[in-house]
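Trying the structure run again after the queue cleared.
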Amino acid sequence: MTRSLALVLLVAACSNQKPAPSGIVLGDATVYELVDRRFQKREPPVVELKLHADGRGEWFNDKTGEPYGAFTVNPNGTLAITTTTTTVPLPALDGDTITLSIDGKPMKVVLRSDGNVAVVGNLGDVVKWRIAAKDPAVARTAFRVLAVTMKQALD
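Done. Tokens:
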């Protein structure tokens, strides 16, 4: 329950973002976390989120492997949190890059063509996540969903 409430508050805090052109392509995708917050390798990788072809999806608890939050990706480029009436725009991509501000410093996160998601910064390129999807456009949609909670995972 606490984790679900924290997720709702986090997503609500992101709601000041401007809507992006949709570019939403739905399909099955799984996002795996490859390293933890300290960039220590996870063995095996853990499921961070799943996106289904109908737009529904779940975030997963990295310790239990159980879903802790549900969402729906809307064709208009918004994310609806299932347990509330909260809807937020998905962040826009610049190519296959999202730029976040962590402690007042810009940090680029890049979706590579192989599905790996790299954090680019003063530590070099660190691959933090991998997105498994058959269609690169679906992987981009999953990347945008991941970006909603990405800042929390990186700060």
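Helices lie at 2-13, 136-154. Worth checking whether this holds up in the mutant runs.
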